[in-house]
Amino acid sequence: MSDARRCETGADRLAEFAPPELPYLPRTLTRPAPGIALIGCGGIAAYHLAAYRAAGYPVLALYDVESARAEDLRDRFYPDARVTSRVEEAIHCPGVEVIDAATHPDPRVAIIEMALRAGKDVLSQKPLVTDLATGARLCDLAEAEGRLLAVNLNGRWAPHFSYMRQAIDAGLIGAVKAVTCSVHWDHNWTADTAFNTLPDLILYDFGIHWFDILWCFFHGRAPRSITACASVSPGQRAQPPLLASATVQFERGQAAVVFHGDTPYGGWDTTVVVGEKGTLISEGPDLNHQSVRLYTEAGVAFPKLSGDWFTNGFHGTMAELLYAREHGVTPHNNARSALESLAWCFSAREHARSGAL
């Protein structure tokens, strides 16, 4: 038992109660999964395929402009999959019904359009788009074609975030009043990648996960204001600012997130969600290793969670889309919901760019 748990459950402290069982794990399908084509075989694609293979999802085609990258992933994960350097061939591969569009945002728009018009359901990498008007147009197209368009907001299924999200939805802590997220990690690995030229790397490409989870925690309540700032850390290797913070103010609540992306030693991540009837706390040395505590009038509970962000996250986003197909419902990670949290992200980015105090 950890020191924190020991002191919190002592005789003179809070009583410990059994953690509520909540549906935080990825959806379970009742029918065989449809064929999937992965479009884009960059660095993150291996995590997609590892999660799909573990879930038993069939990946039938792999596309990349560099065939060698697709061939390498095929050999590692799906030896029988077709490899192609033509997007059309992957989308129209026999048996493929779902497209996992995992390229960078700019080329991805045309890929999504092509897939939707071909009658395929689509899971798009995050962030969905670089401007909200384009995102709205893609949503309209999906609805016109009668197809599903979801976004790989995998943080929603990270075990700690997913459990906290489900606890809030179940009313265990009442209406959310305040959320504070503090993320300390080393993002200098991007110095050797194409991400090194992305000026809003932290608030946009990385930070979208936190704006999205804030949107989930606050059930989409409209913010009164969003402010943010970003700065370069002394000695960082990456070019974009690796230090950033944002504050979201509501009529009856607030949220704050702090990003310290230049933490070479002693990384630590904490999320605190305060509600009218209780508090949720998650913390750990990185995003894949988090422990959760639930405090209510009854005392404190320590749910034991299974999985990690990358495994559960990439499985969960695809499982949600496939479950929606199977049951004729709207996926939780549908593109319109993604645009709402993305609007929060854009507001923070623009405020940081303006340099306003």
Quick overview of this protein structure:
With 357 residues, this protein is of the alpha/beta class. Helix content is 35%, strand content 24%. Strand 13 (289-296) and strand 14 form a beta hairpin.
Folded structure, characterized:
The protein has helices spanning 3-8, 45-55, 67-77, 87-91, 105-117, 132-145, 159-169, 201-206, 208-217, 309-327, 335-354; strands at residues 35-39, 59-63, 82-84, 96-101, 121-124, 149-151, 176-184, 225-231, 243-250, 253-260, 268-275, 278-286, 289-296, 299-301. It is built from eleven helices and 14 strands. The protein folds into two domains: 35-147, NAD(P)-binding Rossmann-like Domain (Rossmann fold); 157-307 and 333-354, Dihydrodipicolinate Reductase, domain 2 (2-Layer Sandwich). Helix 6 (132-145) links the parallel strand 5 and strand 6. 35% of the residues lie in helices and 24% in strands. The model has no long low-confidence stretch (mean pLDDT 95). The strands form two sheets. The protein has an eight-stranded mixed β-sheet. Strands 3-2-1-4-5-6 form a six-stranded parallel β-sheet, sandwiched between helices.
CATH architecture of the largest domain: 2-Layer Sandwich
Average per-residue pLDDT, rounded, comes to 95
Query: How would you describe the shape?
Result: globular
H-E order: HEHEHEHEHEHEHEHHEEEEEEEHH
**Poorly predicted segments:** none
Tally of individual helices:
11
Largest sheet geometry: 8 strands, mixed
CATH class of the largest domain: Alpha Beta
How many strand units? Answer: 14
Residue share in helix: 25-40%
Strand content: 15-25%
Fourth CATH level, the homologous superfamily of the largest domain: Dihydrodipicolinate Reductase, domain 2
Helix-strand makeup class: alpha/beta
The number of domains: 2
> Which fold name fills CATH's third level, the topology of the largest domain?
Dihydrodipicolinate Reductase, domain 2
Strand order of the largest sheet: 8-9-10-7-11-12-13-14
C-alpha Rg (nearest Å): 21 Å
The rounded distance between the terminal residues' Cα atoms is 45 Å
